Amino acid sequence: MNIRSIDLNLLVYLDVLLRLRNVTRAAESLGISQPAMSNALQRLRKLFSDPLLVRASNGMNPTERAVALQPLVREIVVSVERAVEPDKGFDASKSERVFRISVSDYSESTLLLHLLRRMRSNAPNITLDILTPSDVSYEDVERGNVDLVINRFDALPQSFHQKTIWRDSFSCLISHHNPIRHHFNLESYLEASHVWVSKTGMGVGVGVEPGALQQLGWVDDALAKLGKTRRIRVFTRHYQAAMQLAELRDLIVTLPSKAANLLKNDPDVIILQPPFEIPEIELKMAWSPLLQHNPAHQWLRRLITETTQDLS
């Protein structure tokens, strides 16, 4: 098919249709009539030899072809918009932009305060909308509805851009009154009661089965390689809660060192090195290819990188 025979406005219509999945709302967004939008959809179906959107009980759902087309069409439309708009650059000191960032509890505890301090001095009118991993899907990120996700990931979609912003070891937090401090070794560690804390990836979380070692993460994976298991008495996804539980006399909290070091000046807790080797973890930021060349987004990524380099 010769590209000269294609009405490129149809790609703009398709971009809006796939985002809104509603002919009436798409027409209103583009400022055209509903019959004109319906006509455009018919032309798109003919162009791609695919229904693209099909009616279902919950509205209109994209076909498999449409799902594959969506990021490509979005990138084309954004590229054209960027090409025809005057290049004004990005002035962080004057910008009033809202950045939406999904962060894990671990990265929120260790990074956010330092990032905000730097941001407030360089860009006082910028607003951060902080989302939890359960608030966000990979689709939200792919569409550019969320600027960044900062977390530890087992896997990411191949289309995403990503960057490791630091690596972290593990530490143990115990109460100053916990008698284990006087004989802290692998044997006493395994005999003690533990707090499990973790939340990786994205999406709505589910409960943990204590016996399902493959779900428990880094600490328990490292113990499993030694043929050992620990006695987990509390499962939590919140690092602040886990660190508070370390004040209890009979519990051990094993967590990334940057989080543990937040309590280094707390007289009620002690930070100890784990009595076995646990591989380091990587904290990454990931973003949509649609935002890769956006000047504001490039500024945000630089700011985060500079902040994490200082912390490291």
In short:
The chain is α/β, with parallel strands linked by helices. It is 38% helix and 21% strand. The chain has three domains: 3-84, Orthogonal Bundle (Arc Repressor Mutant, subunit A), CATH 1.10.10; 98-167 and 282-311, D-Maltodextrin-Binding Protein, domain 2 (3-Layer(aba) Sandwich); 170-279, Periplasmic binding protein-like II (D-Maltodextrin-Binding Protein, domain 2, 3-Layer(aba) Sandwich), CATH 3.40.190.10.
Give an account of the 3D structure:
This protein is of the alpha/beta class. The chain folds into three domains: 3-84, Arc Repressor Mutant, subunit A (Orthogonal Bundle); 98-167 and 282-311, D-Maltodextrin-Binding Protein, domain 2 (3-Layer(aba) Sandwich), CATH 3.40.190.10; 170-279, 3-Layer(aba) Sandwich (D-Maltodextrin-Binding Protein, domain 2), CATH 3.40.190.10. It is built from twelve helices and twelve strands. It has helices at 9-20, 23-30, 34-48, 64-84, 105-110, 112-122, 138-142, 186-191, 218-225, 239-245, 257-260, 295-311; strands at residues 53-56, 59-62, 98-103, 127-131, 148-151, 161-168, 170-175, 193-197, 231-236, 251-256, 269-272, 281-287. Strands 4-3-5-12-6 form a five-stranded mixed beta sheet. A five-stranded mixed beta sheet has the order 9-8-10-7-11. The protein has a two-stranded antiparallel ribbon with strand order 1-2. α2 crosses α3. It is elongated. The model is unreliable at 202-206 (pLDDT under 50).
